[in-house]
Amino acid sequence: MKKVILFLTLTFCSTFLFAQQDTSNKIQLGARGGVNFATITGDDFESPESRTSFYAGLVAEGFVTDRFSLQSEVFYSGQGFDIEETLITPKAEYQIGYIQVPVLAKIYLVEGLNIHAGPQFGFKVNEEIDFDPNSDGGDFDMDQIKDFDFQLAAGAEYKFSNGLFIQARYTYGFSEVIKDTDVHNSVLSAGLGFMF
């Protein structure tokens, strides 16, 4: 756990160090949150229904030029998938929680509008099957999913002059979610944020 905390701290602070090489560069701090539509995909697993959950966390953006910036984030991401009801199993949610740390390159196409992409590092913090997602009961802890997931994130964002921004992003996991299987995380997200 100490290694994870050290990694998160170094990654989040790297934006500041890079941007401060030129004192004319601007650094912005903010928060973001929204909704995830998450599932898993791959040759060794029939793609299940997506699970709707949320994400929330912190943002640090350092401008290298007026049209190019680097952004690091630290946020919680609720992922997983829905398990459909069958003759053998009841309907349930396979819930996987990650602390996600993306490092994104952002290109501003016009004022306010940017596209962004970069690597994302996911650290699993919880995993369970919930047979009753609408109440406090029905949770069973699991340990089938690997603790680390390397992903690629890409998306688009529009930032208003008052600091409010809206964004959409897709993230695909290149790591095997389950050892020795072709199963990967796939997440489409949309949300809001604010730069202070």
Automatic annotation (TrEMBL):
Keywords: Signal. Gene3D superfamilies: 2.40.160.20. Residues 1-19 form the signal peptide. It holds the Pfam family OMP_b-brl_2. InterPro entries: Beta-barrel_OMP_2, OMP/PagP_B-barrel. Residues 18-178 form the Outer membrane protein beta-barrel domain. The keyword rRNA-binding does not apply. This is Outer membrane protein beta-barrel domain-containing protein.
